[in-house]
């Protein structure tokens, strides 16, 4: 289903946002991107194909202007800070950016009658797993301010549905990874903390080694198990969530993952096979707040959205990330 209206994409210049923008443009959608470029990159956007607004969601006058000028039929909300460790040491930064700032956007949406919202939520809203794989009924008990900020916004969105009919899909991502297989856009965080890019940085020599955080977990090889979901699979889920709301779908949470888990050591071995390099590894203590195992139960995404991950093998994620990292841009944007 191609929509008739404009989509407002917050954080569209970031990692998951930019891949989704590329995918939605390919599906014939019309897009306005709002990004403050704190973590996003102007170069991640095809500026000839989208309307780009450099600004911040907390700017009430700008939000009013944006909604008035473009009358978006839906908002896809990616803009957020996502460093779990930093959220523990500076919680107010996370509550201001991930919770308070979107309230300004939501107020403008209410004033202008925009009633569809696709929210980049996270499995971090669940906290420590009480059962694996995790479905949407899993208790939500976030263990850090990042997860809590996302969980609280889910609650706000439910209340907005009750009060003024805002319909939302909370897409709870597991571990986003991989890059555009064409190598045009990719993952460029500063600082980079994620496992796969750091492994590849160790492979190129950009960092001296990858440190494995914890080898004494109750898992077969002692290292943490995660469900790695390709960024392009996340992108296609956003389009399906949008079509679900266009067809009158109710507010609902949907997990996005493959249903398969891989350990840190397995990911390192696969990266060695992809790159043909021996990756220097050191073994360190556990990282605070890391549960041993996070695996998604993706059945609801199939049932409600008709979505299924296409890139289930992390080898594909690593191959596309390696292509980006060793490609013409060497894995970095100029702007
Ligand atoms: N990890 C690691 N070394 C690193 C970065 C991550 O061992 O330099 C581990 C981390 O403990 C977790 C997994 O890799 O078990 C995925 O971490 P990442 O930061 O990529 O994603 P998160 O699970 O925090 O969203």
Descriptive notes:
The chain has 335 residues and is of the alpha/beta class. The chain folds into two domains: 199 residues, Rossmann fold, CATH 3.40.50.720; 100 residues, UDP-galactose 4-epimerase, domain 1 (Alpha-Beta Complex). The protein has ten helices and 14 strands. It has a seven-stranded parallel β-sheet, with helices on both faces. It has a three-stranded mixed β-sheet with strand order 12-9-14. A two-stranded parallel ribbon has the order 7-10. Helix 8 crosses helix 10. The longest helix is centred in the N-terminal third of the chain and has 22 residues. The chain is globular and about 55 Å long. The mean pLDDT is 96. Bound molecules: uridine-5'-diphosphate. GO terms for molecular function: UDP-glucose 4-epimerase activity. It comes from Prosthecobacter debontii.
Give keywords.
335 residues; alpha/beta; Rossmann fold; UDP-galactose 4-epimerase, domain 1; 2 domains; 7-stranded parallel β-sheet; 3-stranded mixed β-sheet; 10 helices; 14 strands; 39% helix; globular; binds uridine-5'-diphosphate; UDP_G4E; UDP-glucose 4-epimerase activity; carbohydrate metabolism; UDP-glucose 4-epimerase
CATH architecture of the largest domain: 3-Layer(aba) Sandwich
How is the main sheet built? Answer: 7 strands, parallel
Domain tally:
2
The N- to C-terminal Cα distance equals 34 Å
Structural class, by secondary structure, is alpha/beta
The helical percent reads 25-40%
What order do the strands of the largest sheet run in, or round the barrel if closed? 3-2-1-4-5-6-11
Tally of contiguous helical segments = 10
Strand proportion: 15-25%
Cofactors, ions and other ligands in the entry: uridine-5'-diphosphate
Q: Count the strands?
A: 14
Spans with pLDDT under 50 lasting ≥5 residues?
none
Shape: globular
Oligomer: single chain
User: What's the pLDDT, averaged over the residues?
Assistant: 96
